[in-house]
Amino acid sequence: MDYYKILKINRLVKNERLKIFGFSILYLLRRRHLNIFLDPVLNCNFRCVMCHFSDPDFKPDKNKLNIEDIDFIAKNFFNYALRVQIGCAAEPTLFLHNEKIIYEAKKHHVPYVSLTTNASVLNYEKIKQYFTAGLDEIIISMHGCSKEIYETMMPGAKIEHLHQVLSDISELKKIYSTVKLRLNFTINPDNIDDLKNIKSYLDNYSIDILQIRPIRKLGNTAYTDFNIKKIQPKYSQLIEWIEQECLNKGIVTLITKELPDEKLYRNKIDIANYTYFYLSPTQIMELPKNKFSYYKYSRKNGIFKRILQDIFTKKDDIYQADVRFGNYDVKI
Question: 3-331 architecture in CATH?
Answer without folding.
Answer: Alpha-Beta Barrel (3.20)
